[in-house]
Design a protein that fits this description.
128 residues; mainly alpha; 2 domains; 2 strands
Length: 128
């Protein structure tokens, strides 16, 4: 089984080869959040339903033999200053309380990497 402390490459490899499901990985990470976030307050919003939908999509793709991508099944947390369509984005500021971005722009990160929802993500998370 994959523990929350496993590396991203270990998780991706195990999900991609079917050794563990993305849903199982997700539930273990959600349990870790539930166990510790009341004390450390690391998350403003946890999109449990969206994450479960995405994990199910990854698992379905793996079961169908599709290549789901190099990081498929790896849980990711976004800082609260990165706009994600329909998800409250406040930059941890009360003045932005309740604001939900109308779209998810593609970000250009380190080394020119584009960060945007994968093609298998629910339509509500894809812009355009």
């Amino acid at each position: 089984m994959t523990e929350p402390s496993s590396s991203a490459s270990d998780i991706a490899r195990n999900v991609g080869n079917g050794a563990v499901s993305a849903a199982d990985v997700l539930e273990r990470h959600l349990a870790a959040i539930d166990a510790g976030d009341a004390e450390i307050h690391a998350f403003n919003v946890v999109t449990v339903d969206v994450a479960r939908d995405q994990a199910a999509a990854v698992d379905a793709g793996v079961a169908a033999g599709r290549d789901m991508g190099r990081l498929a099944g790896v849980p990711v947390a976004l800082k609260d200053n990165m706009c994600t369509q329909g998800i409250p984005t406040t930059c941890s500021s009360k003045i932005l309380g309740g604001w939900k971005p109308p779209q998810s722009p593609a970000y250009k990160g380190a080394h020119g990497m584009r960060v945007e929802p994968p093609p298998w993500a629910p339509p509500s998370l894809r812009s355009g």
